[in-house]
Design goal:
The protein is mainly α. The protein has ten helices and eleven strands.
Length: 394
């Protein structure tokens, strides 16, 4: 039975609804985030907004505050879902390294003959052009690809993510090219919600202060307002500070990863197009569709056809085989020469070591090599039967 892509996915992601929703491996932290948002809102609506309706001469302002709180909370939760439940820009993995990037280099001689063998070398980096300037991109051993510019491999999700910003444990997902806009809107909207709840709680405390005359009595009358004001004040330092930091990153066209890693290098930012264009790029450009169809079926890959060797490669192979054959023939000829000399020494009176006048004669140097290999069988066949019989007798 055919399997879907999310069933054989090699990353650490968690999928729901047959791959339509994708989360990070720490998706359980979303429960904590939801509680931190919903619990204060419920307390605010139940103990502050209901009482504010009676404080106004007409009930319309109180109901407007209640409706605004509910709508604003739903908007924040939708942004949280769009941030954490979608593909942040995952680059699909390769099933094999890019063969077009291989270069052949001669490695150290490891064979007995001392001949170097060619080895495949894959460059760790290569240069690409971005806005007319060279930028180095790295090779990812896990995904077996050269990462696009501004792409990084997330060690938590185990994926290469385009325009990788950071991995946020509060939303349980990587923040990248396809969900950075929703992440910023979520953080900034949450900061505005904190300001709204803090302000309305302070307004209710003002009404109580007018009624009871002292702060202490007003606090005893509505402890929920005091708790909400303290909670929103503390939370605003985090989400408000995060909003300001990302406003700076958007204005300078940086990511959190680039800011923390290359801040001390004083590198020129090749992606900076001016403050206005940087904001337009984040908020006014169309979000590209996902490069992964997690809901689709896995397609069987057609095996690659074998490479046809070129003429140059054939010439190199033939030349190498000829050289290897000549070296082997020389070695064989040298071994045969040593065997023949040993036999001549044992026989003492072999006719091959004497001339026509019966005196000893040294073999010339020109007998080395292939000529000896070809002449030796003839000399052995020309031996006199009596000499063979004499050696058998001895």
């Amino acid at each position: 039975m055919a399997k879907r892509v999310h069933q054989v996915w090699k990353g650490s992601n968690i999928f729901f609804l047959n791959g339509r929703l994708i989360f990070g491996p720490d998706a359980r932290s979303l429960i904590v985030t939801l509680l931190l948002i919903l619990v204060p809102v419920v307390i605010f609506c139940a103990f502050v907004v209901i009482n504010l309706i009676d404080e106004f001469p007409s009930n319309n302002p109180g109901y407007a505050i209640l409706a605004t709180t509910i709508i604003f909370t739903i908007y924040v939760l939708v942004l949280l879902l769009l941030t954490s439940a979608r593909d942040p820009g995952i680059v699909p993995r390769n099933s094999h390294p890019p063969e077009e990037e291989f270069c052949y280099e001669s490695s150290a001689p490891i064979e007995a003959g001392g001949r170097p063998t060619p080895s495949l070398q894959l460059p760790r980096t290569k240069e690409v052009t971005v806005n007319g300037l060279p930028v180095k991109v790295k090779y990812c051993d896990t995904c077996m690809l050269y990462r696009p510019p501004r792409c990084s491999h997330c060690s938590i999700c185990d994926n290469c993510v385009e325009r990788f910003d950071h991995h946020c444990p509060w939303v349980g997902q990587c923040i990248g090219k396809r969900n950075y806009r929703y992440f910023f809107l979520f953080v900034s909207s949450l900061a505005l919600l904190c300001i709204f709840v803090f302000s309305m709680s302070a307004v209710y405390m003002k009404f109580l202060l007018d009624d009871y005359g002292t702060v202490w009595k007003a606090m005893k009358e509505s402890p929920a307002s005091v708790v909400l004001m303290a909670y929103c004040f503390i939370a605003l330092w985090f989400v408000g500070g995060l909003t300001g930091f990302h406003l700076y990153l958007i204005g300078t066209n940086q990511t959190t990863y680039e800011n923390f890693r290359y801040r001390a290098d004083n590198r020129r930012n090749v992606y900076d197009q001016g403050c206005l264009n940087n904001f337009l790029e984040v908020f006014c450009t169309k979000i590209e569709p996902s490069r992964n169809n997690f809901h689709g079926y896995v397609q069987e890959k057609v095996p690659r056809p074998p490479k046809v060797p070129t003429r140059d490669a054939e010439a190199d192979d033939s030349g190498g085989s000829r050289r290897a054959k000549v070296e082997d023939d020389l070695e064989i000829g040298d071994d045969i020469l040593k065997l023949s000399q040993r036999r001549d020494f044992e026989e003492g009176g072999d006719v091959r070591s004497r001339g026509s006048d019966g005196l000893p004669r040294k073999s010339p140097d020109v007998e080395l090599g292939l000529g000896l290999e070809l002449q030796e069988p003839a000399s052995l066949s020309g031996r006199h039967p009596s000499s063979l019989g004499r050696r058998n007798g001895n």
